[in-house]
């Protein structure tokens, strides 16, 4: 994409990482049973989308307090995703490798989001 067409939030490393995590979530959901797709998959995808949406929305806010609120919602959604991956792991619905990859994404995202919140 041409640089002059990029929005400010698209240049944030945390935003790019949230999109990678979302790609991973959609891939995992494609490979789970219909029951789990219906039960957890929809919630997992919505929470994953919420991460990047709130980073994008928050980056455009003028006040630090508003930015922190949106980044906090991204943080909450990241933690929600990690919990759902824990459930999938406990139900043996995903591989250990996928579970550990999800936790790695979660750790990186939460760390980056905490820094954004503290700097807002």
Tell me the layout of helices and strands.
Layout: H1 13-30, H2 34-59, H3 64-90, H4 96-119
Helix pairs in contact: 1-2, 1-4, 2-3, 3-4
Give the count of helical stretches.
Answer: 4
**What sequence of helices (H) and strands (E) makes up the elements?**
HHHH
CATH fold-level assignment: de novo design (two linked rop proteins)
- Regions with little confidence, pLDDT below 50 for 5+ residues: none
Distance separating the two termini: 28 Å
Query: Would you identify the CATH H-level superfamily?
Result: 23S rRNA-intervening sequence
Overall pLDDT metric: 94
Largest sheet: none
What does the oligomeric state look like here? single chain
What is the CATH top level name?
A: Mainly Alpha
Shape: elongated
Relative strand content: under 5%
CATH architecture: Up-down Bundle
Your description of this structure?
This protein has 120 residues and is mainly α. The chain has helices at residues 13-30, 34-59, 64-90, 96-119. The protein has one domain (13-119): Up-down Bundle (de novo design (two linked rop proteins)). It has four helices and no strands. Helix 2 (34-59) runs antiparallel to helix 3 and helix 3 runs antiparallel to helix 4 (96-119). The protein starts with 12 loop residues before the first helix and ends with a helix.
